[in-house]
Design brief:
With 841 residues, the protein is α/β, with parallel strands linked by helices. The chain folds into 5 domains: 183 residues, Rossmann fold; 174 residues, Glycogen Phosphorylase B (Rossmann fold, 3-Layer(aba) Sandwich), CATH 3.40.50.2000; 189 residues, Rossmann fold; 181 residues, Glycogen Phosphorylase B (Rossmann fold), CATH 3.40.50; 31 residues, no CATH class. The strands form 4 sheets. Strands 3-2-1-4-5-6-7 form a 7-stranded parallel sheet. Strands 16-15-14-17-18-19-20 form a 7-stranded parallel sheet, with helices on both faces. The two termini are 24 Å apart. Helix 29 links the parallel strand 24 and strand 25. Helix content is 43%, strand content 13%. It is globular.
Length: 841
Amino acid sequence: MNIAFDARAILGPLGKNRGIGNYTLNQFRTLIQMDPKDNYFFFNCVEPFSLFGKCPRNLTESYFSLGRGCFLGSGSYFSSAYGKLVKEYIAKNRIDVFYITSPFDGLLPVYRKDWFAGIKVVATVYDIIPYLFKKHYLRDSDALKQYMGFVEQLRWADKLLAISKSVKDDLVNALHFDPLKIDCIWGAASPSFRVIDVSQSDWDHMKKAFHIHPGFIMCTGGDDERKNIGGLIEAYARVPKEVRHGHQLVIVCNLSPASVDKYRKLAEKYHVGNELVLTNYVSDEDLLKLYNMAYLVAFPSKYEGFGLPVAEAFACGAPVLTSNNSSLVQIAGDAAYLVDRFSIESISARLAKALTDKDIGRMKQKGFEQVKKFQWKEVAKSTIESIESLNDVKDISHISSKSLNKPKLAFFTPLPPKQSGISDYSVDIINEISAYFDIDVFIDDGYTPDCLLPDTVKVVNHRAFDPSCYKYVIYQYGNSEYHFYMNSYIRKYPGIVVLHDANIHGALAYKALNVDKDFEEYKTGLLEDYAEPDIASYLEAIRNGSRYADVFNIPANGYIVNHATKIIVHSNYAKERLLRKNIGRNVKVIPHYAKINPLPNVKKCKNLIKFSENSILITAFGHVQQTKRVMPALQAFYHLLAKKGNLSLKLVFVGKLASDLEEEFFSYIKQNHLQNDVRVTGFVDLDQFKAYLDASDICLNLRYPYNGETSGSLMRILADGKCVLVNRIGSFDEIPDDACIKLPNVADMTEKEEVEAIAAALEDLVTHPEKISRTGSAARKYAEENLDIHIIGRQYRDFILETHESVVTEDLLSHVRSHLNSSYTDEDIHELAKTLAYLKA
C-alpha cells in the first residue's frame, strides 16, 4: 500500500513539541521501520522538517510551501487551492490510504470528503475533551461551530484510531459514532524514558537549579485547569505535616506568569509555600533525571485521552498516584495509587498512604510490568492492522490480472543465456511487475531466450517494436555490448532508462571505436557530457591513435540518459552524479533487489559442492576480472594460509576468469602451491551460483576501478545472510556498516596496503567467528527491510506510473516574486514556486 500522512500533528500548533506531536513522531517512526512492505508519504504543508536523519527507502517526504498561509489566498479560495494540492498529491503518488494525524488542528483547512475519492481515510483521535467540557473550552458559539466542523470530517472517515478505550467510549457515547468504525491503538512513552543511574552530581545540579532535595513528589502537569494542579496543592497541604516532611511537591511544566502567581498564592494560603517547587520548563535530560529521582509521581488529572505521564513514570521506575477516571485508570491498572479526581480528601489520603507505604517498592515493580503493555511497537502493529482491515484496501499485486485493464509496457533488455547480471535481473523484475503491466520484451538479434516468464509476457525481436502500441517504454542499460541495440530506440522513442552503471563510457568506446570503428560516433557520444574545448586534446589523441580511451577517468552516460524521460538507478551515488549534470532530471533510486529465501544449512551445502563441512569457505562471485580485485584477494588469501595453516581454508571464484588475467592468476597459484586451496568455477547458472553462495562462510565483493555500478551478487549475498567484505566506494559504501565489513577505497592504499587490509580483515573474521555470524545477521535484516523483490516491484510500478513534476522555471519564479513583499527570501520564493509548479503539473 501507499500510505500518506499529514504533518499537522507534528508541526501544527496543537501538537508541535507537545504530547500529540511527540505521539505522532514516535508512532510513524516506529511504523515506517517495522513495515518495509508498504510505502509511506509525509505530506507537509507547514514547515521544512524531516522525520529521520537519513530517510528510509520506504518513506517519501514532501514539503509544499503555502506562503505563510496567505499567498494562495484566504477563505474559500485557500481551501479550494489546498484541496487541489491534496488531490494532486494523492493522484501523483497513487495513494491508497490518507492518514489525518490531528483532525482538530485548525492550522489548515478542514479536509473535505470529495478530495479523497477512490481512497480510504483514517484519523487519530486523541480525545474529545473540549466537547466533554464545553462550558470550559467551547463557551463561544463560533468555537463550538468550528469544533463540530472538525467532528464532521471524522464522520466520513473510513476508520478512527483512538489512543485509548476511554476515547473510543467517549466517541460512541457522547458523539454517537459507530463502535465498529473505531479501533483502539493505545499509546506509549518515548523510548528515551527509562531507568538510569542518578549520580551525586545530578542531585547537586537539581539542588542548585531548582532547590530540589531527595524524597520529592513530582507532578508533570500542564497549564490547564483540567490537570488539577490546584487540587493537588490543596490535597498535599492536607497531608499531616509529619508525613509530608522531607517530601517537597515539585510541579514540572511550563507555566504562564499568571499561573505561577496563582499557584504560589494557593500554596501560601495553605501554608506550604516553602515546600512547593515550580520548575517551569526543564530540558528533556533533566526531565528524565527527575522522573528517576522522584519518590512518587502524582498526576491526579481530571481527564486524559492517554495519560502519558503515567506511562513515562512507570518506564522510569517511579511509583504513581493518578485518577481513577478516563484513560488513566486503564493505563495504571492496579499498579498505581488511584484517587477520586474531584475529592481533595481522596487525593490527600492516598498521598499519605503512598508516603508511608513500606511496600512502595512492589508498586514500582508492578509499574514496570504494566508499562510493557504500552510500547511503540504495539502501537505501530495495531495501526497497520487497523489500516489493513479496511475491506477495499488491497495491494494491487493480489488482484487477478484478468480483472485489470493493465497498461502496455515495452521492456528492452538482454535475457539469459546472455552472460550478464542484467539478464537475470530483468527476468525477476519482469516476473514481479507483470502483475501491474501488460509486458512485451524486446531482445537483440541472434539468440533464443532461456528463462521462465509469465505466460502473459511475450518476448520478440526488437525489430518488431511498434511504439504506438505501448503507454510506457523501459530500457535496462549497462556497460556492455548486450545493450547496443537499444541506442537508436532510446533516442527515437524516449522512455525510462534503468542505468545499472553510472559510467557507461566503456560501452560507448567499445561500440564506436572497436565495433563500428567510427570516431565521429565516439566524439558525438562524449559531447553529450562535455563541452568540446574541454576534451579537444583528448579526442585528438584518440583520433591519431596516440592514446587509448580513458573509460574510468572520463565518465560518460549522457549519450543514453540525456534522452530518457525518467531514470532509475540503484544508489544515491549514481543519483547525485546524474543530478549534478542536470538538476531537472527525474531520477529515482530503486535498490537492486534480492529474493528473501529461507536461510541455508551451511554445512549441508558444503557437502553438496564437495567441500568439508568443517572448512571455512571464502567466495567471490561474478566475472573474475581485475576490477573485482582478484589478484590482491588471492595474495591476501595466501598470507592468511601462512598464518592460519591449522584451519581448513578454501577460496573459490564463482565466475568466468577474464582472459587477460589467466596467465598471472594461474602462475601465482602454481608458484605458491595453491592448487588444492583455490578454485575457479567458470561461468555458472543461477542454481550453481546459489549452491556456492549457500555454502559460503565469508564473501568478497571488492571493487576498483569503479563505474558507478551496484552489484547484483552483493544483493544476493546480503539476502543470504553472509558476511561480506566490500570497499568504501560508491554504492558499496551505502550498505550499513554493521551489515558488511568495509575496507578502504583502493585509491587510498598502496598495493601492499590493499593486500594487508584484505588479509587482516579475513584473519580477524576466522579468528572471531562470532563476527561472521553477527555481520551476516545484520546483512539479512538489511535485505529483508530494503531489498525484498516485492518492495522493489512496487517501487518500479509507482515510478513508472508517476507523473513527472513540473520544473521550476525563471518565468514562474518571476511571477511569484511579483506578488510578494520584500520580507520573502529567495528560498521562500523558490519553495512557493515549487508548490505552484506541482499544482500545474
